[in-house]
Amino acid sequence: MDSRHRLTRWTFSLPCPAYRQAGGRQGFSLIEVLVVISIIGLFIGFSESSLHLFLSQMNARDTTSTYVQTLHRAQLLAQSGRGDAPWGVMATTNRIVLYKGASYATRDSAYDEQYTSTGAFGVSGLTEVTFAKLSGKPNTLGTTTILVDTVPTTTVYINAKGTINY
Fold this sequence. Notes:
Layout: H1 3-13, H2 17-21, H3 30-80, E1 87-92, E2 95-100, E3 113-115, E4 122-125, E5 128-131, E6 142-148, E7 151-158, E8 164-165
């Protein structure tokens, strides 16, 4: 048998030359398997916390965007005189409601549009804003703070002219 044939046969018979030198054993030891499983567990642990943070940030952006869009929609409906009434927005924990009427308490609930978020959120500060019919000016001005999990809060500002900034 020539050396070229032996080398080819040896290369295909064992996955790694180190095992050949160790007495011809094949496979992995228990310690090697445990080390690999531990490394995989660490990667999963780090990726899970990063994924949770990412999803919380996306939920905060989604909730803020929904709230601001609902404010704009209420303002446009009031300016257009739709339903011959003012329109407003009420934000509570896990719910944003677009309503028709001078206030949330005296609204016409048949026109309510409710929005919820994919995750839990809280609201503090200015929670109810009603926009005047035709002018679109808000009845109150101030800030609304949206709180989502551990993500930094988002603040939405409404001034006397009805401009909404965040």
